[in-house]
Amino acid sequence: MKHLSTKGHHVIQEWFSAKGWETFPFQQEVWNAFLAGKNGILNAPTGSGKTFALWMPNLIKWIDEHPEDYQEKTNNGLKVLWITPLRALAKDIQKALQNSVDEMGIPWEIGRRTGDVSQSIKKKQNQRMPEVLITTPESVHILLAQKKYERHFKNLDAVIIDEWHELLGSKRGIQTELGLSRLHGLRPDLSVWGISATIGNLDEAMDVLLGPEQDSAPVIIKANIQKNIQAESILPDQMENFPWHGHLGLKLLPKILPIIDESRSTLIFTNTRAQSEIWFQNLLETRPDLAGAIAIHHGSLDRKVRDWVEASLHEGILKAVVCTSSLDLGVDFSPVETVIQIGSPKGVARFMQRAGRSGHQPGSTSKIYFVPTHALELVEAAALKSAINSEEMESRKPILKPYDVLIQYLVTLAVSDGFYPNEVYSEIKKTFAYQTLSEKEWNEILQFITQGGKSLARYNEYSKVEIEEDGLYKVNSRKLAQRHRMSIGTIASDAMLRVKYMSGKSLGVVEEWFIAQLNTGDSFWFAGRNLELVKIKDMTVYVRRAKGKSSKVPAYMGGRMSLSSNMTHILRKKMHQAVSGDYSDIELKTLEPLFEIQRDWSTLPSEDQFLIEKSFSREGCHVFIFPFEGRYVHEGMSALIAHRISKMTPITFSIAMNDYGFELLSDQDIPIEAALGEDLFSSKHLVEDIMASINSAELAKRRFREICQIAGLVFQGFPGQAKSNKHLQMSSSLFFDVFMEYEPDHLLIQQAFDEVMSIQLDEVRLRKALKKISGQEIILNLTERFTPYAFPIMVDRLRGKLSSEKLVDRIQKMQNQLEKHVK
Amino acid sequence: MISGSHQINLKEQTLTLLPDKALYWEEKNILVVSDVHLGKSGHFRKHGIAVPGAVNEVNIQKLEELVELISPVKIVFLGDLFHSEMNEEVDKFKDWRKSHSHIEMILTIGNHDILTRFEFEKMGLECVNQFEMDPFIFMHDESESTDSEFYPITGHIHPAVKLSTKGRQKMHVPCFYFGQSHGMLPAFGTFTGNFRITPTKNDLVYGVVDKEIIDISTLI
Questions:
Q1: A7-222 and A403-486 share one CATH topology?
Q2: In CATH, which of 1.10.3720.10, 3.40.47.10, 3.40.50.300, 3.30.160.20 is domain A228-390?
Q3: Which of A92, A104, A84, A93 is nearest to A16 (CA)?
Q4: What chain B residue is nearest to A805 in terms of C-alpha separation?
Q5: What is the domain range of residue B68?
Q6: What is the pLDDT at residue A493?
Q7: Which of B48, B84, B207 sits opposite A464 (nearest CB)?
Q8: Do B209 and A811 touch (CB under 8 A)?
Q9: pLDDT higher than 80, residue A728
Q10: Domain A7-222, what fold?
Q11: Which of A236, A319, A385, A470 is most buried, judging by how many CB atoms fall within 10 Å of its CB?
Q12: Residue in chain A nearest B190 by alpha carbon
């Protein structure tokens, strides 16, 4: 490699040599591009040396700018901002960077500023910023909410966004874009680099990060490091006894015990916090000797508890940890030799990411076991195993124009030094997310934050952002400013209560509605412990250790994940492989008896067939439809189909779905036969039909919850804090009803409905799915029993509702049913 | 009879349950209204939370319509008439009160009514903790102690019930409730939430559904 002639290169090269390390070609490539003034994306997995790839050029630049006194100059102001999605990663990066400058004798300070850094350190930073600050997107915005924040950034040279793929496609990603737009406004020559794992749309990821207008051509540099992954399914001994439905997977628990025993350290990934608690509880009950050697880790546990688990994993003193996506990312746990995935990981990328948590040493193999929670999940296992080899990764679709995040950002600027709309407008127009924001939309947003809606005399009591004489938009109320600073962020949460022992030790947080179902003296399982509820005071649940067994495990709200489109694609391929008689995968072979039952009782649909089953039970009439397109698409398609049938006759449905299909259930006969004659699956009038369904309002209401919190309509308060803002609390669903009635064209209501179409129902995928169906032969079977395909959907408890009957009629009908019953 | 309303007989008195979530006592010509929460939207707006301002106007409009329809001699507000401190919406209510000076208006104080008695009296509201009229006693919260032998009619909790049926359909419905020990009115105000109650057998429950009152006692 060339360009090694400068002093900077020389110092760095020497440091590498002294360590006995070699620089990778991709690292040098990044250094050169960075130093040539280019921006870009580095595509590299964790543990590949990606941090140094983007860290070293900053040092080279520094040394070359100050070849004589680079080891003397202190107090240089903030030079590099390092943004990471996970604060747990921040510490490790801080350590690595600090070591390197210390060893090179560069007197730089590497600071950290995340939610868990103490106030006193933050205060010190406010007076004197370290040369490097490792932080999160939220913390950047909290900095922007400070008085005179501009002074912090006047020496800023570079911003590195770590794990950009994790942020992309989420509102945290939008927050990152907005933060960057302001920093660019302050420092037009800023270097911006992202680090991303492999995703299906790397080019787009770069456009989003850097904005649509780039002066010089940005670059994508690939590390091209292959990782060996070995995946194996845990198979039930007897298929006959293996459940057709379920989501816990405990049936196979005995089979993973030997794996835990034989491996130095094992991570057991579950999909929900409740599931992790249940698995932990059952592991302990089955193997009491593991007490103390196994631990639990999920997002609701106290930071200190989690830190302890992470540190213990790192040191290799834990035999196994049951965890959730809380350990998807984060520091290296070298002692981890094995990963076990319970239930569907829902996507190829997540499966590989989790597999990669084992065998962390370069060149070693990652080992992952897949534990199906019900029979059909074995098909997913087979599909995942094939996908690993083909490296088909999911794309992360960017979100466009979310008003809520922009509203929060503008208020953030208004609580610090205020802003002039023209300045900020031209900045945000340069972001990918808001490039298409019209002036009309912009003005409505400004009206919303200054007048609380469209301008009318009666609104004059509204106070939030005020317009000063010179046109500066500013929040002057200290109370408002304080409330806003505390609620910066885009991750919506339910009201949470802190769980504490009587002695004061904190265990974590639980949702308020869960605790509301419990009485004093009841016991529940949390943080891997059996606890008794003693009292609730000031948003805190006081508990003591309980004796005996308890059955209650906190369930947690939150939408269930859907299979990615990538995943459904390979899943269908595997299904069709089995239908055509190719049982070469051990998983499919194991499932053969189940497929035979499906064939006997109904049909095993081939690639050009589309299966619908109809049956009757005491509950009413069931229609099962099997597109195999993932939960999100099914959500939209079921609303669409239900609406179209309900246009033919007044009828009420309840709707259930999983990743394979959906069910319509009604107390009256569903005229599916007639409906099929009427172009039921047409994509004509798709949007109108979905919007007309009552379901769309219900879905929009669900989206509105998050929007309300981000836009500052709902203020959550914090666990452990007295409910001082109780008089300003109102549920987002009531807000939704009120807005729908009085201002149905409100920006945030529009956003909720847009999100339903674009995010929740994934319109693009839905259209594709409908198009595919139109080319298939529809098979309608009247079945006597629930088939292996139908059964898991039927027992799924997440149900929607759609009705074309008047509510009054429905109640009348309920009364009639009741009378019949009595007679 | 007002469209959608439902008449019941309680303690040998004729009570009409109105779909606007108010109660009319025929024999005494009294209108009973609970939990209007006037000024709630203004309170939120003052603190930078942008609730549509129209909400308040609807509340006063609904009151006005009822008064025109029924011409009561007396209105009893079962507490939480105002959500918080003085604001513009309170002023609007004052104007409305003045335009009906011939009607006697009584407020049984609720936990949200934080204005002083003096201020209430000044706007022409008779202010009491409980209001007795044989065979009923009106008050905000039934858990307040009372020595009265009369049947308490209260507000405060904004009652609603959950109905479920075959096909696993579920819905929440605001309701009037008349149990063994006391009766409860649904919240009159538009910008108010609900609290789900679980009635027991023999309780009388009337749901407010699509501008109609329906006897749903048998469904619970």
A1: no
A2: 3.40.50.300
A3: A104
A4: B210
A5: 6-156
A6: 65
A7: B48
A8: yes
A9: no
A10: Rossmann fold (3.40.50)
A11: A385
A12: A738
Mean pLDDT of A688-706: 83
The residue among B43, B49, B57, B163 with the most chain A CBs within 10 A of its CB, best to mutate, is: B49
- B106 within some domain: yes
Q: B interface toward A at CB cutoff 8 Å?
A: 42-55, 57-58, 84, 87-88, 163, 165-171, 173, 190-193, 207, 209-210, 212, 214, 216, 218-219
Residue at B219 is within a domain: no
Count of domains forming chain B? 1
Q: CATH fold of A403-486, please?
A: Arc Repressor Mutant, subunit A (1.10.10)
pLDDT in tens, A359-380: 766 667 889 999 999 899 999 9
By CB atoms closer than 10 A (0-12, 13-18, 19+), residue A803 is buried
Helices (H) then strands (E): counts for chain A: 30, 26
Residue range A747-759: average pLDDT? 91
Whole-angstrom distance, CA of residue B2 vs CA of residue B16 = 9
Every domain of chain A and the residues it spans: 7-222, 228-390, 403-486, 496-545, 602-815
A707 at interface of B, judged by CB pairs closer than 8 A: no
Residue B74 covered by a domain: yes
Chain A residues close to B219, C-beta within 8 Å: 811, 814-815, 818
Helix, strand, coil share (%) of chain B residues, nearest 5: 20, 35, 45
Query: Model confidence over A256-285: pLDDT tens digits?
Result: 999 999 999 999 999 888 889 999 999 999
Least CB-CB distance to B167: which of A620, A806, A815? A620
Asked whether residue B161 is domain-assigned, the answer is no
Return the residue of A nearest to B213 by Cα: A808
H or E, element range at A439: helix A439-451
* Between residues B31 and A697, the one the model is more confident about: B31
Determine the average pLDDT of the residues in A15-30.
Answer: 93
> pLDDT higher for A459 or A743?
A743
ipTM over the 0.90 cut-off: no
- Chain A residues in contact with B210 (beta carbon < 8 A): 806-808
pLDDT in tens, B24-37: 999 999 999 999 98
A808 reaches B (C-beta below 8 A): yes
Contacts of A376 (CB under 8 A, 6+ apart): A244, A591, A594, A660, A788, A789, A792
CATH code of B126's domain? 3.60.21
* Alpha carbon distance B174, B187 (integer Å): 8
Is there a contact between A659 and A563 (Cβ–Cβ < 8 Å)?
Answer: yes
What's the pLDDT band for A19 if we cut at 50, 70, 90?
very high
